[in-house]
Amino acid sequence: MSRKTIVALLSALAAFAGCASTQQTAAVAPPPAPRGIEGSWASTGGAVAYNANFTNGTFTSTESGTGAVLAEGTYRPLGPGQVTIEYTSRVRGTRIAANCNQVEPDRLACASSNGSRFEFTRRG
């Protein structure tokens, strides 16, 4: 091979290596904004696993395994990430109020008028 050919090959390899080593950084998307209280939530802990649904001011909770309705009621926002729920427990037949705070985008912590505390994580 001639000296010109070798220099040309080395130049081409250097140019190729420069292109190949140039990394493009992908744009990092901002974290998703909290979606508020609306939607489906799953209980965490407790004796019975259940799901809670918040839809247009209506609150329902159903047992995860059977789908049996455990409580029904209403809810209203108190402020960003805060909601108050008033529901009737089908198990006890009592009316209960609870205040909940969205402590993380997918976590809701609640305290009820009967002294119990419970939490939910967002489903889907």
From TrEMBL:
It is a lipid-anchor. The lineage of its organism: Bacteria, Pseudomonadati, Pseudomonadota, Alphaproteobacteria, Hyphomicrobiales. It is found in: Cell outer membrane. It comes from the Bacteria. This is Outer membrane lipoprotein. Keywords: Cell outer membrane, Lipoprotein, Membrane, Palmitate, Signal. The keyword Transcription regulation does not apply. Transmembrane segments: none annotated. Residues 1-26 form the signal peptide. Its main location: membrane. It comes from Aureimonas endophytica. Pfam families: OMP10. Belongs to the rhizobiaceae omp10 lipoprotein family.
